[in-house]
Amino acid sequence: MADESVTDRIERLVAEEHALRSREEADSSDEAALEADRRRLGEVSVELDRCWDLLRQRRARRAAGEDPEGAHARDADTVEHYLQ
């Protein structure tokens, strides 16, 4: 997957994240819709973390003179439990 594909995916996820956050206020009187928005927002957040991680891997491999195609998307559990 090329860097451009990853960044395109990030941009689409960010747009969806913004739309979900905007909808939260409108859905505040509908508990089921609000819960669905929150669930999807969580999924989008994890997918964004995975995409950013993949992009960072690709850039690091390129900077080290390695093939960026050797980078791979890590599972959500790995990405979400990195130590900061």
Strand-and-helix sequence, N→C?
HHH
Strand content: under 5%
Task: Tell me the radius of gyration.
Answer: 16 Å
Average of per-residue pLDDT values:
91
Number of domains: 1
Class by SSE composition: mainly alpha
End-to-end separation:
27 Å
Q: Number of DSSP helices?
A: 3
Number of strands: 0
Give the low-pLDDT segments: none
Helix content: over 70%
Question: What can you see in these coordinates?
Answer:
The mean pLDDT is 91. 74% of the residues lie in helices and 0% in strands. With 84 residues, the chain is mainly α. It is built from 3 helices and no strands. It has one domain.
Short description:
By secondary structure, the chain is mostly helical. The chain has one domain (3-80).
Keywords summarizing the entry:
single chain, 3 helices
List the helices and strands and how they pair.
Blueprint (H helix, E strand, L loop, with lengths): L2 H24 L4 H33 L12 H5 L4
Helix pairs in contact: 1-2
